[in-house]
From TrEMBL:
Transmembrane segments: 174-194
Name of the protein this chain belongs to: Type III secretion apparatus protein PrgH/EprH
Gene: eprH
Gene source species: Burkholderia thailandensis
Gene Ontology CC: one annotated term: membrane
Lineage of source species: Bacteria, Pseudomonadati, Pseudomonadota, Betaproteobacteria, Burkholderiales
Superkingdom, taxonomy of origin: Bacteria
InterPro entries linked: T3SS_PrgH/EprH, T3SS_PrgH/EprH-like
Signal peptide: none
Low complexity composition bias: residue spans: 152-164
Region (Disordered): 145-169
Assigned keywords, A-Z: Membrane, Transmembrane, Transmembrane helix
């Protein structure tokens, strides 16, 4: 083993990067600085033109230059204590803290690593190995091949430097990139398909709107999730006109025509069949209906009710849920009847109540009562609270008939008779 005059053993450094890849340098086990990068030239003017300025590092102490790319980190080797043998764990023979220390210096700062002899020490694309003279290079050092710089510095690796792992890492990165490209491609394809479907759907709605432009009653023309187009008319006559116009137009689209009132009843039947506890469904804006529930229903019940409503009406885009109590609905009915001056009594029934109005009405009062009932049922439906008009049955006591003030004749409690004027009969 070669030893300098100081008695310290000579070490051998193998460069595993740059133009000097594979070359060995003999160094003493002291503190040595390695300048890594492009050639450093002393560009100061020489005293005589024929005398070229020497390399700046010729004046540095314990410094070696290794050519490589610009911006590569420099490094310094330090051998703490400078022992001939590193302290080792008796059982394993491994270095306790490493055989030497490496300071990697760059513009980002200094990173210190502990390394062992005859293993690859790597930092980014800087790699080298150090051994004692007389020892053969390990398999990992002898077969080391350079690879792309790492994003972050790697720690000193005992044994094999992990070249097989590097290829696996590259394969993983490639798979991730390929997967990301596939995901982006699928997303773009889905977006394009959605845009096309949206455009086609808009064209279909426009064609139906054009056919029904002259409808006698307002229409709500809505696309359904089931591929159909739903036309909801405000009146029965309007719905009949819509059906006739669509039949003549012979459009290829699947179109369903219904009256708003009948559609409301159909949806409520579907909710009843599904066991949903609710008051009514308002279709003032059919694509955004209002679902009236009794009391503060649990979250699960609310979600189920909304799901059933969406299944019953595929054209629904959003559902507004409103809570209401049976007591508040009954009180609102009482207040309305009291304001109209009607005599009534409350009849309890399963799941709600019926207000029986027991009084006689003239034409104006009867029309006002009918408007009251129509407005109330539009707001709250008839499932929980409804009205019943009971005509007086004691008007015919002791009489075969009773004549009203306007010439009406009450034959029995459920039958009115409107006779022809007598003077009309004599004139014939």
């Amino acid at each position: 083993m070669n030893k300098p005059d100081s008695g310290l053993e000579v070490l051998q450094l193998r460069i595993l990067f740059g133009p000097l890849f594979g070359s060995d340098i003999a160094i003493p086990p002291g503190e040595i600085f390695f300048c890594v990068g492009e050639q450093v030239i002393d560009d100061r003017p020489a005293e005589h033109p024929e005398n070229h300025a020497g390399h700046l590092l010729e004046r540095a102490v314990d410094t070696l230059y290794i050519p490589h790319r610009a911006g590569a980190p420099n490094f310094r080797l330090r051998f703490p204590g400078v022992p001939t043998q590193a302290a080792r764990i008796p059982e394993t023979g491994e270095a306790a803290r490493g055989d030497f220390e490496v300071d990697f210096l760059s513009a980002d700062g200094c990173v210190t690593q502990c390394a062992a002899f005859n293993t690859v020490c790597r930092f980014g694309d800087i790699a080298f190995a150090l051994r004692r003279q007389g020892e053969p290079w390990s398999e990992a050092v002898a077969r080391y091949a350079p690879h792309a710089p790492s994003r972050s510095p790697d720690a000193a690796e005992p044994g094999a430097p992990g070249e097989p792992g590097d290829s696996g890492e590259r394969a993983s990165r490639f798979a991730l990139k390929l997967g990301a490209l596939l995901v982006v491609g699928v997303a773009l394809a889905a977006l394009a398909y959605w845009q096309v479907q949206r455009y086609v759907g808009a064209q279909k709605l426009a064609s139906v709107n054009g056919v029904l432009a002259g409808a006698p009653a307002p229409n709500a023309i809505l696309p359904g999730d089931d591929g159909r187009i739903y036309v909801l008319s405000a009146s029965q006559d309007g719905a009949e006109w819509d059906r006739e116009a669509l039949l003549k137009a012979a459009l290829p689209e699947k179109i369903e025509v219904a009256v708003i009132g009948a559609e409301r009843q159909r949806i409520e039947r579907r909710l009843d069949e599904a066991g949903v506890d609710f008051v009514t469904v308002r279709l003032d804006t059919p694509e955004r209906p209002e679902l009236i529930l009794t009391g503060a229903a649990p979250v699960a019940d609310r979600a189920r009710a909304i799901g059933e409503l969406r299944r019953a009406a595929p054209y629904v885009r959003d559902v507004r849920v409103i809570d209401a109590s049976l007591g508040a609905i009954e009180q609102e009915a009482r207040n309305a009847l009291d304001k109209a001056g009607a005599r009534y009594r409350l009849l309890a029934r399963r799941g709600g109540a019926t207000f029986e109005v027991a009084t006689s009405f003239g034409d104006e009062e009867l029309a006002a009562l009918q408007n009251l009932m129509r407005s109330f049922s539009h707001k709250w439906g008839t499932r929980r609270v409804d009205f019943k008009i009971a005509l007086r049955t004691d008007w015919l006591k002791g009489k075969s008939y009773r004549e009203g003030g306007d010439g009406y004749v009450l034959l029995d409690h459920a039958s009115w008779y409107f006779p022809q004027p007598l003077e009309g009969a004599h004139s014939r």
